Amino acid sequence: MGNYTLIHKGTIVGSTGLSRADVLLDGTRIAAIVDPAGADDLASLSPDIHVVDATDLLVFPGLIDVHTHMRQPGGEQKEDFFTGTSAALAGGVTSIFAMPNTAPAITSCDTLDLALDLASQNAVCDYGVFIGATNTNMRLKADHPDLLECGLKMYMGSSTGDLLVEDFGAQYEHFQLYPHDRVIGVHAEHEPAVRYFGQHGERRPHIAAEIEVARAVALAERCNRRVHVCHVSSRREVEIIRDARARGLPVTCEFAPHYLFLTTDFDHGQVTEQRTDELAMFAPGSILEPQSLYQMNPPLREERDIATLWANLDVADCIATDHAPHTLAEKNSAKPPSGVPGLETMLPLLLTAAHEGRLTLADIARLCCEGPARTFNIAAKGRIAPGFDADITLVDPREQWVIGERPYFSKCGWSPFAGWHMRGIVKQVFLRGQLAFADGTVVAKRGAGKRISN
Ligand code: DOR
Ligand code: ZN
Ligand code: ZN
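^ thats the input. predicted complex w/ zinc ion below
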């Protein structure tokens, strides 16, 4: 007798729409999609089947976040694989890819082994780890074809950490030598422009991103290879990527929640006293500098950029959080680091936007489940269909709550969305058939996560 679970009377969400059907899990896999009318017979035929009542709940494939910073090794005061993947589960995310800008950075076989080891001991959701491009490691994958990285990350412009490949020749050689069907994810801000404007008191204007996204696209075309543009934030970037795809180039991209939901109004400190109070829900009594809290790379953009992102969701292959936790002490320091956390808030924000009619539930499944799986060639995840991993996120789309008033799992302990009113909450999460998160509690054991092969 198998180890069956039946997700009963829920509504399955897929990229083509909703369907009322039950999902039968057999151990770690999805065995069948079943008519709920027949499911009662099934339950009576197999008395040891575990039935999960999903009445009035949405049944999403576990979300896949292809852009997170887990901070291990070296940044454990901000996050680690256990707290970061706990935050993932709380946000309905069952798979994460971790970025290599750690300390040490993940740029070699040994450092990749180190990160994968830390993940395997601590992660409570499934994971992959990126290799970071340097000015010298272009031959790494060619020399080690069995390397277990999920993709190559290239910082074409500098950001947190010391990874940077700004020189054209080094960029070109990576584009040539990394396997052409595997993903190079690029942080595309033109470093000379970042430096120049920085010296003139202007932080990372649009032109920095525009130049480097155009360059990444040109490199992909010249080298006849794939490229994936991380965290698209501005209007021209969208146009460049749309044009590249219209020309048939293998360019994919991700949008991030903070560029969809926040504007420069937050970054420029035009933050009301009420906002400061809301943020303080996470850290009662502490003095918060909203300006540095919202500092990130690329920076927040203007209203018209945000409008362009929303109007061009079809250009996005994925929504990825760029979950970039830093402690409040670091954020309040004289040299605040860039980045904001986002794993726990992405799905609630998108569900709330869906309720407001800004996108559909099917869009969420496309952008957070199927799209990431397609972009990164993850064969067994991203859809609710027979044979797929039994990664399931159950959502109550009606429940209302306020960010900051519920258990929070990221070690950084704050959210840029504190005080925001949400409609839609993650109730239960199954990871490969096992209950991993339920009603505000992580139940998966440390180390339950597995490396994703792609
Ligand atoms: O704001 C950011 N924070 N942008 C990045 O590219 C890196 C990230 C981090 O690691 O903190
Ligand atoms: Zn980046
Ligand atoms: Zn990032």
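The mean pLDDT is 94.
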